[in-house]
Design brief:
The protein is α+β, with helices and mostly antiparallel strands. The chain is built from five helices and eleven strands, in the order αααααβββββββββββ. The chain is rod-shaped.
C-alpha cells in the first residue's frame, strides 16, 4: 500500500470511528482543541492528516494511532520453526520465506565420518557457534572453531561435519541454489 493510499483512507476512518462513538464534530473539537472546520476537512479528505492533528484525536477516542492511520499489522516477527533432523544433524530454520537466502542453525552430533564431498550450484557461508567443524573444500581440509567463519562456492566439492571430538553448533546460510539435491563429486584423476 502506498503512502497516498494510506493517507486517503484516514479521513473515512476518522469519520467512522467518531460516528461509532456517537461523538459530534463540536464535542471532538472541544476535546482536542482542533477547530470543527479542520476536523470536517480531515474527515472529507480535503486536509492532509499530520501528527499534530492525529495524536489529539487518537487520545480523545482512546485508540492507538495505528488504528486511525490504518497501518498494516506487523505481525509477530519471531521465527518459530520446528527443528528437522536430516542425516543425523538437527536443523533449525531461521528464515520463514521459501526461496531466496535461507539461514539455519545446525547441531552436528559428535561422530567420526568419512568425508563425502558433494557439489551444487550456489554459495554457502558457515559460522561456528561452539565446538569444532571440519570443512573439506576441494584440496583443503581445515577445522573451524567457535567464532570462525568460512564462505565458498558450492560448485567446489565440499563436506563439513564433526571432528569426532564433540558436537558442533553452527550457522549455515545459502541461496535457493543450496536447496537443490547434492550431487556426489567425482574424485579428480591424476
Amino acid at each position: 500500500m502506498t503512502t497516498d493510499e494510506v493517507l486517503a483512507g484516514v479521513g473515512p476512518r476518522l469519520r467512522r470511528i467518531r460516528k461509532e462513538r456517537e461523538v459530534t464534530l463540536a464535542a471532538l473539537s472541544e476535546a482536542t482543541g482542533i477547530s470543527v472546520s479542520t476536523l470536517s476537512r480531515l474527515e472529507s479528505g480535503l486536509r492532509k492528516p499530520g501528527l499534530e492533528l492525529l495524536l489529539p484525536i487518537a487520545q480523545a477516542h482512546q485508540v492507538p494511532l495505528d488504528e486511525l492511520v490504518g497501518a498494516p499489522a506487523a505481525g509477530d516477527p519471531r521465527v518459530r520453526a520446528k527443528p528437522v533432523v536430516r542425516g543425523g544433524r538437527t536443523h533449525w530454520p531461521l528464515t520463514r520465506q521459501p526461496g531466496g537466502l535461507q539461514a539455519f542453525k545446525v547441531l552436528e552430533p559428535q561422530r567420526k565420518q568419512e568425508p563425502e564431498p558433494r557439489t551444487h550450484e550456489g554459495y554457502e557461508w558457515l559460522y561456528v557457534l561452539s565446538g569444532k567443524l571440519r570443512l573439506v573444500l576441494g584440496e583443503h581440509d581445515v577445522v573451524l572453531t567457535a567464532g570462525e567463519a568460512a564462505e565458498f562456492d558450492t560448485r567446489v566439492p565440499h563436506w563439513f561435519g564433526s571432528t569426532g571430538e564433540g558436537p558442533v553448533e553452527f550457522l549455515s546460510l545459502f541461496g535457493p541454489q543450496g536447496e537443490r539435491m547434492h550431487v556426489r563429486a567425482r574424485p579428480r584423476r591424476p
